[in-house]
Protein: 3-oxoacyl-ACP reductase FabG
Amino acid sequence: MSRHVLVTGANRGIGRAIAEAFVANGDTVSTIYRSGDLPEGVTGAIADVTDTDAVNAAFDELEAQHGRVRVLIANAGITRDGLLMRMSDADFETVLDVNLTGTFRCVRRAVNSMMREKYGRIVLIGSVVGLMGNPGQVNYSASKSALVGMARSVTREVGSRGITANVVAPGFITTDMTAELGEDTVKQYAATIPAKRFGGTDEVAAAALYLASDAAGYVSGAVLPVDGGLGMGH
Structure:
């Protein structure tokens, strides 16, 4: 049976690949996004995840079209990189408001629907740097690390209602953003990865598909790395 799957930030990168994978899986896919074009078959509502009222209104709009959200893929995120001593309060707070509090706003609203359905799959898109740390990304690492605690707390709160909550932790993935690093920089990073290559967005999408499937109904509060062995699960 087709499920209503909502993927935040499905207009580009990992979010786009995930949305396309769920469309191919036969699900009804929607997104909350800020701008850009969407994959074929994906319905969108424009909203900023830092605005609670806008998030709730977007959910209402999309659920009016497709029924209650049964799968949430919380992917929307930003970076504001900089060394700790030079990082402004604004750069730290903005990243946390989008990546962490924005995810919270979406999860809170989705759980409201999932509780009524007595079924739900929540997949939070974290990052290997949330587990390992990374120079120049104190804000981003903190925001992604916190998603693990969120997923595990959600699991303990609503796990008895047929709802699971997990984290996918991608490593270096080939996207438009990493393409800007330059060939030499990519080679340097790839040399540190046991798989000796960057991952593909399709590989992250495959992990999200699994965690959202009935086959993963007994998997909750877990962190699934998709990083070529870079983080070794930590």
Q: What stands out?
A: Strands lie at 4-8, 28-33, 42-46, 71-74, 120-125, 163-170, 223-226. The chain has one domain: 4-173+201-225. The domain at 4-173+201-225 is CATH 3.40.50.720 (Rossmann fold). Residues 89-117 form the longest helix (29 residues).
